[in-house]
Fold each of these.
Amino acid sequence: MTRPSPVNPALARAAVASFLEMPEWRQKIMGYGWRLESIDELTLYAVLRARPLNDRIEEYTVRLACDYYPTHPPDAKFVNPETLEYELNNDLNHLPKLAAPYCQVHPAYSWDHPYRYGPQLVCSSMTLGYYFSNHSPTADQVWEPGRHTIGSTIHTIHRALQSAHYSGRHVK
Amino acid sequence: MSEKDDNNKPEQKEVRVTVHYTMTAREKSFEAKLDETVRQVIEEAYKRLEERHRPGDQYFCHIEPRIDLSPYLDRTVRVLMSHKTCVHEQPHGNKLVFEFDIDADTGGAGR
């Protein structure tokens, strides 16, 4: 599979702005209780809740970089909610343990090629990193511009966080 | 409402279905017979959404806890209702509601 290239920034900015105005996703964002904010015109972050474990509900912050969007999905990575960054040695405790067949989190993936958003990989065909790693989605799993949006990426992570495949927070 | 009033209610034969296609945030609503199977309702939902069944699609109740509907595919909506699963009465009304999600598969095998 050919590795993706960034989208013209003006087109990417317009696509992000368009997503934020989509009524069907605005309704879902409210319904699911996601907190979605812009860092800049091409970068968003979403605060998502995980399923309760031991009577505790944990929240996680996902940073979404959209410079390859809408041709490709946003990069998605879990970050420290205070810095909105991820430093492997300091921020491991801001990552959930997720091992869903459709969405897994690797704190430090073994990248075969340089990837600007590494080392973390949220492994799903709805995230950009998937297309920079050695994964091969089926025709039905592959990102389809127009059909899939930033909301598809967030929902995939939300779904995994709410599933039995979530088993708590990583320990530093 | 008293038990007597409940007994006087006309028997319901239909349910208002709302389906959510979670990857695209699209939703559709339509009526279905209580004697239809869950699989028949899902097939109608795909038509209304203008989607098709894709390998790995999964079906869940929309309301938490998201109960997996796969054990019920060949049972009727009436059976689902008798198991108090997914089907409920609309608040402030007596209309039955069956609300479910279709989750499409995404790639994500770890390494």
Amino acid sequence: MTSARTLQLRTYALLVPAILFAPTGNVLLGKGMRQIGEVRHYSPAALGGLFLRAFTNPWIWLGIGCLLMFLVSFMIVLSWADYSFVMPVLAITYGVAALMGHWVLGEMVTPQRWLGVALISAGVALVTRTPSSSKVQE
Amino acid sequence: MRTALCLVLIVFGTTGGEVSVTHAMKQVGEVQSFAIKSLLGFLRRALRQPWFWLGIGLLALNFFALLTLLSWENVSFAIPATALSYVTGALAARLLLGEHLTPLRWAGILLVSAGVALVTLGG
């Protein structure tokens, strides 16, 4: 049995990369798909061509790699942590996405959206004050 | 009617899928060593769990239900509905996985859910 303190440290050591990999993967997929261009035709030949272009685009593969890394971190952390702990904490990715959009892509983020990010952060702050695994006494 | 059906499938797919994956990981057992060899062993055992594949199937269902809904509904209506999955997720963790949710954790989850609704709502 691992001590509660080690478990809490391990939980964060996996949640932090998960929180960074998920939005990064989505941004990379978005960048790749934008290079490929908007889908206008839905004939089998057109869709076949689309898949071929998607799977030969390096950004798409980088994006898939990031999302796979996210899935693996998610799986490892759930081998000991509560789902009801991991699920709300991962919502902080909405905040990371808003910051990435604002700083990296120069997107406008509305006050309503910042308010939502503030609520999510407050909620995550509350959840992280509870033990990450209810099977371990802290 | 079809909108309601898609919303049910989205929420059910997310919660059902993630709860199944969680159950599979608890069956595999706690990761104790972070050496590459033992992590690969963990992944190999995870991929042999039927619950893991059920979970991935349900997450795929959630993905396609969302795509289908987006073909006629606005993004600003469809995506905030995912906020509901935080509440169903908490209920499923309590009822299906037997996790202990303190009032503090419930309060946090409700705040997160409200925040996700605000972030994803248009405007």
